[in-house]
Amino acid sequence: MPVYTVHEPPLRQRDDPAEAADRFVFVRDKFSFWAFLFAPLWMIWRRLWLVLLLYIVLMVLLQAGLWSIGASTAVKFVVGVLIGLLIGFEGPSLRRWTYNRRGWINHGVVVADDEESAERRFFDAWIARDVRPAYAPVPVTPAPYRTAADPPDVIGLFPEPQSRPR
Questions:
Q1: Among 52, 65, 103, 118, which is least packed by CB within 10 angstroms?
Q2: Is 114 contained in some domain?
């Protein structure tokens, strides 16, 4: 079953909380093929600016390091593919990290067949949470007070044969 994380953007002053529900983002935890294939374009599309900057710096340093040690073209290609695989596998985590950095609230995880079902499940639980009656604590009766002179009713797991009634 696919797993989604739910992120709520920070409220702006003119936002109505009911309308802000349209701006929730559901991030599916899966391999991102487009992030693997076109990492920089995918980062621009998703507005992951800091991730893009770090990716460019990492790739420049990595390629310069490979060039300085005289690595072959095949090695450079394999390293590029491995970095692409890493970006593909960690793409959803990079999105979640960026949302967290921007002050978005992570509301948890939803397991559903598709994004529409995940939205339905999340908002049904969200509404049910707000409709529930207030929590009323159950009164707890204190245990009866015992003194050291009172013999215990139970020794280990077995009661005493002649225990006195209370």
A1: 103
A2: yes
